[in-house]
Amino acid sequence: MGNRSRQILLTGGTGSFGRAFVSRMLREDADVTIRIYSRDELKQYEMAQAFENDPRLRFFIGDVRDRERLARAMYGVNQVVHAAALKQVTLCEYNPAEAIKTNVLGAQNVIDCAIDAGVERTVALSTDKAVNPVNLYGASKLCAEKLFAHASAYTGPRDSRFACVRYGNVVGSRGSVVPLFIEQASRGEALTLTDSRMTRFWISLSQAVDLVLLVLDEMRGSEIYVPKIPSMRMTDLALAIAPDAILKEVGMRPGEKLHEVLLTADEADRTREFPTYYVISRQAELGGGRRLPEGFAYQSDTNTQWLDVDRLAEIVTELGHGH
After folding, report:
1. From residue 12, how far is each of 148, 164, 194 by CA, in Å?
2. Could you tell me which residues come within 8 angstroms of residue 104 by beta carbon, excluding any fewer than 6 positions away?
3. Residue 323's pLDDT band (cuts 50, 70, 90)
4. Is the model's pLDDT at 226 over the cut of 80?
5. Which among 139, 160, 179, 250 counts the fewest CB atoms within 10 Å?
6. How many other β-carbons are positioned within 10 Å of the β-carbon of residue 142?
7. Residue spans of alpha helices (H) in 30-158
8. Rounded mean pLDDT of the chain?
9. Mean pLDDT, rounded, for 239-246
10. What letter does residue 291 receive in the DSSP assignment?
11. What gap in Å lies between CA 177 and CA 190, rounded to an integer?
């Protein structure tokens, strides 16, 4: 980027990640301009108020399904962060065609418009559920990853680069299980777990923003970046929120996994390990890092980093949800 100011388009910008990303950029970059591209006018209004109508923010009503509108919003932009998606697993199962329109066709629209507009760097947010997917949400995000990994083949002479970040559940985001557990505990109810053996990766919003900014600066194109993040047991999270609560198993929901995977053994042979992240790339010349041992897989149940009950309780309190 050199000394040029960042002109960023942020799809799905009114979500949890979008707000955290905008907060960081406005705090650290006086010259940045961020275009928030999303469908919900009320959330855009509320976000404008929350950031005191900062003149560095622009708000575009639009849907990633609408290629014409997306192309207009991307005019003059040099970086894109693609966070828009339908994310609710059960909603995607019940509305599969809608999930595909947003998560797959929308991703292709972002790629096409970024190439046409000469955008230099485009980063898409992916999820551990895209790995060996067992539900439509994961399958649609896997498709989006494949589209982004192959997008560089269509850029021609332009220096347009595409990459993905793939990470686990975001602490405190909308749709997190934390508010549900707190609500159940406040009513004196049992906390409902689908399976007491369940483990999950967890990343903070701040870590997610760190990762995206790192990728915008370092990407060569076609990579998937996977952060090294801790795992937690769902039973420990429940105990951290309500130590005296009764835990009730209700059975796993359709499309739910016992444990999540961020990096498969099949991907390990084209992955490099760095101190705080892994990079999966089809480019053999990917520099730096070290090779992974044969058969290595990065799974939430075999992770070497764990959040215990005490640390989870601290995190919940930091989020403003004390006991």
Report:
1. 17, 15, 29
2. 140, 143, 144, 147
3. very low
4. yes
5. 250
6. 19
7. 41-50, 67-74, 89-94, 96-100, 106-117, 136-150
8. 93
9. 92
10. E
11. 14
Helix/strand/coil for 257: coil
Sequence-ordered list of residues with C-beta below 8 angstroms from that of 92, at least 6 positions apart, any chain: 86, 98, 99, 103, 135, 136, 137, 140
- CA gap 206, 196 in Å, rounded: 28
**220, 286 in Cβ contact below 8 A?**
yes
Q: What is the pTM of this model?
A: 0.94
3-state SS class at 13: coil
Residue 166's closest CA among 142, 136, 194? 142
pLDDT cut 90: percent of the chain above it: 84
- Given 87, 129, 228, 257, the catalytic residue: 129
129 catalytic? Reply is yes
Question: What is residue 78's DSSP assignment?
Answer: S
Q: Which amino acid is at 298?
A: Y
Phi (first) and psi of residue 120, to 5 degrees? -80, -45
The encoded tokens of residue 161 equal: 């680069």
